[in-house]
């Protein structure tokens, strides 16, 4: 049913570029369906029903809200932006959702103290490695940096951490990551660094000894993007909600992700806009 896989990635990574905006193809399907109905063409309607079925199969389940009291954890993921002029206000928005865990990317030294001070009353446990951090209501152990730096990056670059969270339901390994940015140019969709970093992160998750794993991060790709296959092939993604998170001014895609192993990511949604160019996302997690 994944007809978009027929678009090759060999030239300009056009397949990944298409997959970044795949849900929006539903608008094209709606237009075609309306045209077929207006023309009262049975043949055209039959032809349109195939893409309707494909889109519904792949994305229809995301349309539900999935709210319920069954979640064991609520998590928030946010790229706070290294140009954010209101760290304290951003932290208050995130804490206002009442999550158990908050993962942040693009933390800069000048703003770190404000995040720590604002979140400290409700999140006494936190860890920061490089430009990524994790705040938790529950104790953290085994905190370490995760090396996801592409080989061609020679300057200091630390965008991954791992910690074990001691939840009431047992220890959960939590990874926070910020994969390299992608670019669209004359040569196509430039994602080789992102794809290499995703491979490194996928191997780290695969080697994780704890059974239950959560991955929170700005992965600079959607869950349909084949460049993230080293992660999506190993982990569950959200069952409900589109939660388009970027760009904040007019969100077109969710590149801020929550994934899980041996756990279920239920409903995912966006939170109010902050001083970042990303929207925060919040997700409900069922352990086990």
Strand content: 25-35%
Number of helices: 7
Mean pLDDT: 87
Q: What's the Cα radius of gyration?
A: 20 Å
Uncertain regions: pLDDT < 50 for 5+ in a row? Answer: none
The percent of residues in helical segments reads 25-40%
Strand order of the largest sheet: 3-4-2-1-13-12
- Our measurement of the CA-to-CA distance between the termini, rounded to an integer number of angstroms, reads 29 Å
| Total beta-strand segments | 13
H and E order: HHHEHEHEEEEEEEHEHEEE
Structural class: alpha+beta
Q: What about the largest sheet? A: 6 strands, mixed
Produce a short descriptive summary.
Helix content is 28%, strand content 27%. By secondary structure, it is an alpha+beta fold.
Describe what you observe in this structure.
The protein is α+β, with helices and mostly antiparallel strands. Helices cover 28% and strands 27% of the residues. It contains seven helices and 13 strands. The strands form three sheets. The chain has a six-stranded mixed sheet, with no helix packed on it. Helix 2 packs antiparallel against helix 3 and helix 4 (87-96) runs parallel beside helix 5 (109-119). The longest helix has 18 residues, at 42-59. The protein is globular, with a radius of gyration of 20 Å. The model has no long low-confidence stretch (mean pLDDT 87).
Helix and strand topology:
Blueprint (H helix, E strand, L loop, with lengths): L13 H7 L4 H15 L2 H18 L13 E7 L7 H10 L4 E5 L3 H11 L5 E5 L2 E5 L3 E6 L14 E8 L2 E9 L4 E3 L2 E3 L1 H15 L6 E6 L10 H4 L23 E6 L1 E8 L10 E7 L1
Parallel strand pairs: 1-2, 7-10
Antiparallel strand pairs: 1-13, 2-4, 3-4, 5-6, 6-7, 8-9, 10-11, 12-13
